[in-house]
Design goal:
mainly alpha; 6 helices; 55% helix; 0% strand
């Protein structure tokens, strides 16, 4: 039984290590995800993500917040970039976590007062 627990723990640690390495900032140049929608689609995910990819480290900050539930890593520049994204983009950018955009908006309002409203 103890060997099974050790094997399970080893697998979990290996997976966490792989995830941590894949999200290490500065290791790879960030590229926007390719759109899964046709070119004439009303939602252009590349356009949605572009503001965040233009701020160095912003995408990493957001992903870290999504996975940890903590927003302390989201900086001023990232919050400003977030405020420029069309509100229609968020459900398509984070389809598995619909509560993330409003939580981020709340957090950014504390970091950067008087942020412009979403388009």
């Amino acid at each position: 039984m103890e060997n099974k627990a050790r094997a399970t723990l080893s697998i979990v640690l290996l997976v966490l290590l792989c995830v941590a390495v894949s999200f290490t900032p500065g290791v790879a140049h960030e590229q926007p995800p390719r759109s899964m929608f046709p070119p004439n689609s009303p939602i252009d995910l590349e356009k949605c993500w572009s503001s965040l990819f233009n701020v160095h480290g912003c995408v990493f900050e957001l992903y870290k917040s999504v996975f940890t539930g903590k927003f302390g890593n989201v900086g001023v520049a990232c919050c400003k970039a977030y405020s420029t994204i069309d509100a229609n983009c968020w459900p398509h950018m984070f389809p598995l976590n619909p509560f993330f955009p409003p939580l981020l908006k709340d957090n950014c309002a504390h970091i950067v007062p008087n942020l412009p409203a979403h388009k």
